[in-house]
């Protein structure tokens, strides 16, 4: 295993201690800055939590959160924490079919899965914070997110789950599609 395949610290130390607590195999569906940084290479993207959309099976969820959530002993020890994302109103319905395992074989019982870049972008759509737009532009600049696929997946897998999308996420999606297309044009002109 090469050095780049290892979970970077402080995440590695934190997750190994959390792995020691696990009593059975468990999967974490990871989203957010941790994924943008460690899976997709946005090294200047700082985050202090591992956002997870799902912990499956859920039998140990509460125990993991007690040991590793913000303010926990593991958080105080390592400076990072586990955060179960409960505020996402909607996400692509088939996101779990596109998960990719990261850091395979690094932990005994915990397996980490990263969401696909378009799914990750769509999960950030409702909040639309500055850091979300920066993350999406980074993913687009790396060729990992395209405007057409983002819009297609939003309409096919997510829009119907959002209350009054025409007053919220539709507007943000149009902004992001425009932003991604502008970034692609700038990248194409730089390449010439």
Give a structural overview.
The chain is α/β, with parallel strands linked by helices. The protein has helices at residues 11-21, 33-38, 61-68, 73-78, 117-124, 130-141, 147-157, 169-191, and strands spanning 26-31, 49-56, 81-84, 100-102, 110-114. It has eight helices and five strands. α5 crosses α7 and α7 (147-157) packs antiparallel against α8. The model has no long low-confidence stretch (mean pLDDT 93).
- Please give the share of residues in helix: 40-55%
Spatial extent as radius of gyration: 17 Å
Largest sheet: 5 strands, mixed
SSE pattern, N- to C-terminal: HEHEHHEEEHHHH
Question: In summary, what is this structure?
Answer:
The chain is built from 8 helices and 5 strands; from the N terminus they run H-E-H-E-H-H-E-E-E-H-H-H-H.
Descriptive labels:
192 residues; alpha/beta; 5-stranded mixed β-sheet; 8 helices; 14% strand
């Amino acid at each position: 295993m090469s050095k780049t395949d290892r979970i970077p610290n402080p995440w590695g130390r934190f997750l190994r201690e959390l792995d020691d607590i696990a009593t059975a195999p468990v999967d974490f569906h990871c989203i957010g800055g941790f994924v943008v940084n460690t899976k997709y290479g946005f090294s200047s993207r700082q985050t202090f939590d591992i956002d997870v959309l799902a912990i499956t099976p859920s039998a140990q969820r509460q125990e993991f959160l007690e040991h590793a959530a913000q303010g926990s002993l593991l958080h105080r020890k390592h400076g990072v924490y586990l955060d179960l994302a409960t505020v996402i109103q909607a996400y692509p319905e088939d996101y779990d079919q596109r998960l990719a395992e990261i850091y395979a074989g690094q932990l005994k019982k915990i397996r980490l899965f990263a969401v696909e870049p378009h799914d990750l972008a769509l999960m950030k759509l409702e909040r639309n914070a500055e850091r979300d737009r920066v993350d999406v532009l980074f993913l687009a600049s790396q060729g990992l997110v395209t405007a057409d696929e983002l819009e297609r997946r939003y309409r096919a897998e997510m829009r119907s789950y959002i209350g009054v999308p025409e007053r919220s996420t539709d507007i943000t999606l149009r902004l992001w599609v425009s932003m991604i297309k502008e970034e692609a044009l700038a990248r194409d002109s730089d390449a010439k």
